[in-house]
Design goal:
43% of the residues lie in helices and 17% in strands. With 646 residues, it is α+β, with helices and mostly antiparallel strands. It has three domains: 280 residues, 3-Layer(aba) Sandwich (Rossmann fold), CATH 3.40.50; 212 residues, Isoleucyl-tRNA Synthetase, Domain 1; 106 residues, Nucleic acid-binding proteins (OB fold (Dihydrolipoamide Acetyltransferase, E2P)). Helix 5 packs antiparallel against helix 6. The chain is flat. It binds zinc ion (ZN). The site of zinc ion (ZN) has 8 residues, from loops.
């Protein structure tokens, strides 16, 4: 059997897992399941990157050793994958001794081949955060704290990346699918064509890392350590990758494409190690079209979604809604809408109506007969799914499956089995048999095709069809129309995808989100995450603060903005001749009646901006915590309208 070794990135453990990690990992595991259906022995890897300054500091902040800290966070990742029904075949923590051995081994090979030298590194460094700021110029601010970085010089070991420009270009040209999708390939090509600088790969200022075999006071810096995890996970004590190396696929997010498509193959070429076959970079998962980030306070976690809707609902949404490779947007509303239309009404409905009819009209035994039109469509759908999934075009493949589902729905309506059942003629009864078999067999094919995307739910439908062999053993080669044996007794019927009310579902998930976010914060030894940003914020002189004109205002009118769940259209008196028009994203937290006659804080000198066609002449001040609803700032004592806050 051919092997197929695929990897997610090694996730950095300075933060707890969120939906971005889930996106990559679920996609990878879907590919693994799909490859198994193609007959490959697919081996899926995910792991954690555990060294570096950020981890060192995060551990120190909560009074833990880096080892204890990474034990804690890497366990969170493992628990997460278990809960989400993700089968991990291989894993590594970069703090594991077997990983250290492989890193030192590859370094030694690169050194023996003449690609490592000792030199002097000059870069920008934030003394406050003890952090190197890559690609910063002298005078640039630190991205963590905003303080001006200092130029420092230290002795480091360097990797001769500059020697690989031509070899890398040859690689991309001889293997056009080495980097996918095309946009990422073009980016990488122009980066490499512009010329490559040698890479500093060690630090003496850092303690939490793997020591260099040649000089113990140096530890490996970031990428030369982390990337090698893909190999050490399959090394099994030797260096030959146990037959699994090279990887067939590195699945990554687009922000780390340069490291995977430039640095990584160069390290391997320098060490004379076979190269991975493909790097595929997917796009970003945005939250309601915004980039998810800690500072925006809009990070979504998978656990609330799992608890309310199930892991399959999330996996289906991510693969169906977003074109793999491009950026895509996540929202709770869209998730539930998609679930109801495709899973509850689509496959869920097809399963329950088909199985109910088989029970009602044929005492639960699958009859004989088949519709050639549906049979043919099922055949082409099996082909389409293979072709599209092979190109990681999941949304297209799923679309094809849903075309088959709706064709079967139409077929059932046209045949009207409920009418045929009342007609005792031989012809009517034969047509009824044909209708029931066709619907049930289509359901079997659809269920098998969906098993990589719905690994928890598909086996349930499979069992309800009375299938006794494991769905895991079904391959594309064996999946043909007519595989459902006539006479087979179906299993016990139960709904697999109950409908979810949007409002109720969103509320539940938001509530759980607050709970889970607080749990994660506690795990990281933090109080609420909103407060965490404060100490790191750049300090500003009082004059800067006084530039902001904050006023006490009185809400005179409040109405929801049509076509928006979030926006509220307000008229606010701030002591001027005319009340201000203000559009505020508070409609999910407050109704109009709660806002009328309420004293609020207004930023009065913001540049006006249009929201949903209404010009907002200011901003209302509210506190927000990650995943929670905004809470308006107000006053405990009475205060005249228009009073300035200083
Ligand atoms: Zn800093």
């Amino acid at each position: 059997m051919n092997k197929y070794y695929l990897t997610t990135p090694l996730y950095y453990v300075n933060a707890a897992p969120h939906i971005g990690h889930t996106y990559t990992t679920m996609a990878a595991e879907t590919i693994a399941r799909f490859k198994r259906m193609q007959g490959y022995d697919a081996v899926m890897f995910t792991g954690t990157d555990e060294h570096g300054q950020k981890v060192e500091r995060a551990a120190e902040a909560i009074g833990k050793t880096p080892q204890a800290f990474t034990d804690l966070i890497s366990a969170e990742f493992r628990t997460q994958w278990e809960k989400l029904n993700i089968r991990v075949d291989r894993t590594i923590r970069t703090t594991a001794p077997e990983h250290h051995k492989i890193v030192q081994w590859l370094f030694q090979r690169c050194m023996d081949n003449g690609y490592i030298y000792k030199g002097s590194y000059s870069g920008q460094y934030c003394v406050y955060d003890e952090l190197y700021v890559n690609e910063a110029k002298p005078g640039d601010p630190c991205p963590e704290c905003g303080r001006t970085t200092e130029t420092v010089t230290e002795e480091n070991y360097f990797f001769k990346l500059s020697a690989f420009q031509q070899k890398l270009i040859e690689l991309y040209e001889s293997q056009p699918d080495f980097i996918q999708p095309e946009t990422r390939r073009n980016e990488v090509l122009s980066f490499v064509r512009a010329g490559l600088n040698d890479l500093s790969i060690s630090r003496t200022t850092l303690k939490w890392g793997i020591p260099l075999p040649v000089e113990g006071k140096h530890v490996f810096y970031v990428w030369f350590d982390a990337l090698i995890g893909y190999m050490s996970a399959v090394a099994d004590g030797g260096f030959d990758g146990n037959g699994l190396w090279p990887a067939d696929l590195h699945l990554i997010g687009k922000e780390i494409v340069r490291f995977h498509a430039v640095f990584w193959p160069a390290f391997l070429m320098a060490g004379n190690v076979p190269l991975p076959k493909r790097v595929f970079a997917h796009g970003w998962l945005l939250f309601e079209n915004d980039k998810m980030s800690k500072s925006r306070g809009n990070i979504v976690r998978s656990e609330p979604i799992r608890q309310v809707m199930g892991a399959d609902a999330l996996r289906y949404f991510l693969l169906r809604e977003i074109v793999f490779g491009q950026d895509g947007s996540f929202s709770f509303d869209a998730l539930i809408t998609r679930y109801n239309s495709d899973l509850a009404n689509g496959i869920g409905n097809l399963a329950s109506r088909t199985l109910t009819m088989v029970t009602q009209y044929r005492k639960g035994a699958i009859p004989e007969g088949s519709d050639p039109g549906i049979a043919e469509l099922a055949g082409t759908t099996i082909e389409t799914v293979q072709q599209t999934f092979d190109r990681f075009e999941f949304s297209k493949g799923l679309e094809a499956i849903w075309s088959l589902i709706s064709a079967v729905d139409k077929y059932i309506v046209t045949m009207a089995p409920w009418k045929l059942a009342r007609d005792t003629s031989e012809e009517a009864q034969a047509n009824l048999n044909k209708t029931l078999y066709t619907a049930a067999e289509a359901l079997r094919v659809v269920t098998a095709l969906l098993s990589p995307v719905l690994p928890q739910s598909a086996p349930k439908i499979w069992a309800q069809l009375g299938m006794t062999d494991s769905l895991d053993n079904v391959t594309f080669a064996g999946l043909k129309w007519g595989g459902l044996p006539a006479g087979q007794q179906i299993g016990e019927i139960s709904g697999v995808f109950p409908r979810i009310e949007i409002k109720e579902g969103v509320t539940k998930m938001r509530e759980l989100e607050e709970k889970v976010s607080a749990e994660q914060a506690a795990l990281l030894g933090k109080k609420p995450e909103a407060a965490e940003e404060a100490p790191g914020s750049p300090k500003i002189p009082i004059d800067d603060f006084l530039k902001v004109d904050l006023r006490a205002g009185l809400v005179l009118q409040a109405e929801r903005v049509k076509g928006s769940d979030k926006l509220m259209h307000l008229k606010v008196d701030i002591g001027e001749a005319q009340p201000r028009t203000i559009v505020a994203g508070i409609a999910e937290a407050y109704g109009p009646e709660q806002l009328l006659n309420r004293k609020v804080v207004i930023v009065a000198n913001l540049q006006p901006r249009k929201l949903k066609g209404i010009e907002s002449q200011g901003m209302i001040v509210a506190a927000s915590v990650e995943g929670g609803k905004p809470v308006l700032a107000g006053f405990h004592e009475d205060i005249p309208v228009g009073a300035r806050l200083k």
